[in-house]
Amino acid sequence: MSEQNDEQLMAEVAHGNLDMLQILFNRHHRHVYNFLFKMTGDKMLSEDLTQDVFYKVIKYKTTYNNGSFISWLFTIARNSLKTHFIRNKEVHGDLESVTYRIGEEDRTEDYSHLHKALQQLEASDREVVILNRFQGIRYQELAEIMETTPGAVKTKMSRALKKLKIIYLQTI
Fold this sequence. Notes:
- The protein is an all-alpha fold.
- Helix content is 70%, strand content 0%.
- The chain is built from nine helices and no strands.
- It has helices at residues 6-14, 19-40, 43-59, 69-87, 89-92, 112-119, 123-134, 139-146, 150-171.
- α6 (112-119) packs across α9 (150-171) and α8 (139-146) crosses α9 (150-171).
- The relative contact order is 0.11.
């Protein structure tokens, strides 16, 4: 049963078999949480938003159109993050002003300079780097998530990595 791919499982969820959602949750909740944590630097907020993402998967299950489940899931995650910052602007400011913070579990000698450089990127650049390099989402899926073309994503990634390299070399 768990040998089904994500798209098959989500199709079953969309048809009312909510038991299959447990398999999808077990496969992907850490990835969603890590993305949200790397974007916000706040464990509690990331946990709440992760829960909200999977609530929305249930709520909007009938809108799933048999495309890439990962693209659909991370589109929900991105939208939840943006909605949170729009609704709570007086508490957090906006998403562009949030810097990535290094969590205790991320503190390793080898990556601390990289994480410091990553926090200095603009939110949109940081997002594309995190989704592609940390979460392993391919350009085609990123294009679907960001509602653009794979070529535009490659260009954005290239520019973001160049900025990251410059910042990184300044921090070491």
